[in-house]
Amino acid sequence: MKRRRWIALSLFISGAALAGLLAATFTPETRAYLGEVGVAALLLALGLRAASILCRMVRIGVLCRGLGYTVPFRSLTVTQFLSLFAGSITPGQVGGEPVRIHRLSHSGLAVGDAVAVVITERVLDLAVFVSLTLAALLAVRHLWSYLAATVFYPVAAFLILVLVLLLALAVLVRRPSFTKRVLGSVASRVLARCGRSRRWLRFCPGAEGAERLAQRVEREAETFAAGSSRFARAGRRAVGGAILISILDWVFLFSTASALLVALGLPPSFPESFLFQGVLQMIAAVPLVPGAAGIAELGAATLYSRVVPTYLLGLFVVLWRLVLYFLNIPLGLLAAALAARETATENL
Predict the structure, then answer these.
(1) pLDDT tens profile 131-185
(2) Rounded to an integer, what distance in angstroms lies between the CA atom of residue 298 and that of residue 280?
(3) Under a CB-based contact definition with an 8 Å cutoff, are residues 52 and 277 in contact?
(4) Could you report the per-residue pLDDT of 193-218, keeping only the tens digit for each?
(5) Which of 176, 204, 237, 238 is most buried per CB count within 10 Å?
(6) C-alpha atoms less than 13 angstroms from C-alpha of 323 in its C-beta half-sphere
(7) How far is Cα 305 from Cα 247, in angstroms, rounded to an integer?
(8) Exposed/middle/buried for 226, CB within 10 Å: 0-12, 13-18, 19+?
(9) pLDDT digits (tens, 9 = 90+) for 105-140
(10) CA distances to 123, 202, 212, 315, 330 from 217, in Å
């Protein structure tokens, strides 16, 4: 029921924002362009989006093999689709990582190793994403005065946050004992709160269960540290391959908007569009509303108003959200059905 409320809320907010944007920018010129949208460029945009998703599935498989696990492609597909779905209906896209950890542990990985894989993914994403965004920023110096308030400050704040997170991660990986103390402290606080709250009382494991849980937290923390160390040593080849795949992934993802611009008969504006996509990704990472609904639409309209005529702006944002956001919903529901069938088969 809670999942349905998240879906309904995100779709309602995003739909309302898109409807308002279309109403504000729809003109007779917009109507004339509806019949001239390039079908080939639209298919290219969908193909680029599909290629980006495929890259992420392949990357998970490569990282898992770096730790000595082989995950079937079908399981990787379900994992990625469910992750996209969870990210689309949760604030800041925070639902994607727990889903991938759960699915990877279901596929045979130790929980600590699954956490190491997912964190490595995120570190690679941050490194490639930030590099592409900064490269695009350097390529559009002629727009710096226009972008000063809308781009520079958010980019600077995001880079500071990324640096802090990477430093914290480095400490956790290099000091396993500290990692165990941190995770143990968090688990103890959660259990203490659980014991004081009637709402969560039915989920409390009791004294004996709490001890087993603490032991498991300690064991998985050791596994996470060991998995991270293996990536740093024997898994370098896998990480190198994952870096190349990550570069392709983000290039495909950022190029999707340029393909949509071409579909509307506009120049692809690669440097500007790459920069705008980077800023919009930063906006989507802020945990305010599910799927950044409403914020993403307004942000895209504000940024792309520099390269898209007003009468096409609403249409462009609609197409962009359809390909990069709304498409995640049916993919996720399909993956949920496949996962439910897998569970039913295992229980027979």
Answers:
(1) 888 888 888 877 777 676 666 666 677 677 767 776 776 666 666 666 666 656 6
(2) 10
(3) no
(4) 554 544 444 444 444 444 555 555 55
(5) 238
(6) 28
(7) 27
(8) middle
(9) 888 888 878 888 888 888 888 888 888 888 888 888
(10) 23, 21, 9, 49, 35
Other C-beta atoms within 10 Å of 72: how many? 11
Residue whose tokens read 């309904």:
8
Residue with tokens 């390529």: 139
d(CA 276, CA 49): 17
Instruction: Show contacts of 53-57: CB within 8 Å, 24+ apart.
Output: 53/80, 53/81, 53/84, 55/245, 55/246, 55/248, 55/249, 55/252, 56/80, 56/121, 56/249
> How far, in Å, are 73, 153, 156, 323 from residue 148 at the CA level?
44, 7, 11, 29
- Which sequence spans correspond to the domains of the chain? 2-174+235-347
Q: Under a CB-based contact definition with an 8 Å cutoff, are residues 281 and 59 in contact?
A: no
- Quote the tokens at residue 137: 């920023």
Cα distance between residue 298 and residue 296, in whole Å: 6
Give me the sign of the Cα torsion angle 277, 282, 284, 289.
negative
